Request: fold
Amino acid sequence: MPTKLEQLKKLWDAGDYRNALKLAATWPRLGEHKKAIQQGWAAAWNPGFYHQMGKDPAALYRDGLGALAERYDLTLPTKEGTRTDDPDPGFITEGHKQ
Reply:
């Protein structure tokens, strides 16, 4: 059975950044990156809430990905190598226009 870190790296390598962030957000020991990772997942999960607070959920999501990459020494994706929903999360802005 793969470890959680192995699962995270597999999701990341497959380009499934949203689920990688979701997985890591549940971990108790994220160090100085904890707030950014958990807020990034929360913004992806409930962007309308962050819009109501006057925050940019797409930016929080990207910050969470950056923190996750830094914490676990992952390579951030380039714009050309991403799926359509990551890391420019159209799923956040398209369904929640205010």
